[in-house]
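Hi R.,

Here's the chain you asked about this morning:
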Amino acid sequence: MKSDLPERTFSFAKRIVTLCAVLDDKLGTGRTLAHQLLRSGTSIGANIEEGQASQSEADFLSKYSIACKEARETHYWLRLLDAGDLVSKNQLQDLINECNEIIAILTSIVKKLKAKRS
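And the predicted structure, written out as tokens:
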């Protein structure tokens, strides 16, 4: 069965881009946070796509590990936005929940690959 993770992270990235476009229209903190969130939130799927074309298991593990780290960073920025009341709580909660699920999936994949290698 083929993984839907590349498509899922692409959809997540599209939602991040939309949120960041709104935040970027705000001055100061909103714009600064938007740039951080945009970078990390779109990097998750980009690293997964790179991992899909990896030339070795080590390369695959590296790309998925980076994707997991980027997902954790994205989670941080989303939580910070939530604490700052800069956008709708409902919109953020959906993104935070999806980010948590992506982190759980990536963590599981990375742990299994590391266990297989040792």
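The first helix runs from residue 5 to 24.

Let me know if you need anything else.
M.
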